[in-house]
Amino acid sequence: MTLLDYLRRVGKKKKEVIYPFTLDWMHADMHSHLIPGIDDGAKTMEESIALIKRLHGHGLKKIVTTPHIMSEYYKNTPEIIRSGLERVRETLKEEQIDIDIHAAAEYYMDEIFLEKVNNGEELLCIHDNLVLVETGFINKPQMLLETFFAMELKGYRPVFAHPERYHYLIQDKALQNELMDRQILFQINLLSLTGFYSKQVKQFAEFLIDQEKVAFWGTDCHNERYLDMLETLNRSSYYEKIMNAPVRNRLL
């Protein structure tokens, strides 16, 4: 019996390779909450700068931070967000942290958002006409498809934030197929691959990767705890795969 035959017989596994953790392959992050004090993300300027510095240290060259705009909780406006962004930029300059930072928003899809779209109100874009949108996690909004259609009529391209976290979508194969057929852009949270949210969320994220349906990656960074867990991403069996996937972050 040759050595090769023996190894085949005993089923010896190939040694697992653990790659160093880095975000330079992503180039740009387009989902985070780093403007202090305006949503559930960074609370102070000191916290905001610490998070940005840490992300920059992992290889990010650009950040498009996306504060929540939710009619009942976070009543942010383009003016509030732009003002906060300028304060962050000024502090980064003082701290000599050289990173390209911009701001858009993560819009909650409800009746009021649909009114904003239909009325032609300004929507903050990640890049060009790309607008980040989210829903609740449990129940499918009745106006989900109507809102996507209304956005498209106004010339916007919806980017669906963390679809792997929506329980209604995980359970509705027909809706999954409909959104994919309509070429709705999916943005997956990197933390989903670490099991940060749940095993079910992790599995659905992996399914979407295998189906090549991921357009964008995001850290969805809110605080230090998020980054602590993010730094375990290189232990994921999908880490090498996502580093080599053709995602659009590099085009931002």
From TrEMBL:
Family annotation (SUPFAM superfamilies): PHP domain-like (SSF89550)
InterPro entries: Caps_polysacc_synth_CpsB/CapC, Pol/histidinol_Pase-like
GO MF: manganese ion binding; protein tyrosine phosphatase activity
Keywords tagged on the record: Hydrolase
Keyword Hydrolase assigned: yes
Enzyme class: hydrolase
Similarity remark: Belongs to the metallo-dependent hydrolases superfamily. CpsB/CapC family.
Top-level taxon in the UniProt lineage: Bacteria
Name this protein carries in UniProt: protein-tyrosine-phosphatase
Enzyme Commission code(s) on record: 3.1.3.48
Reactions it catalyzes: O-phospho-L-tyrosyl-[protein] + H2O = L-tyrosyl-[protein] + phosphate
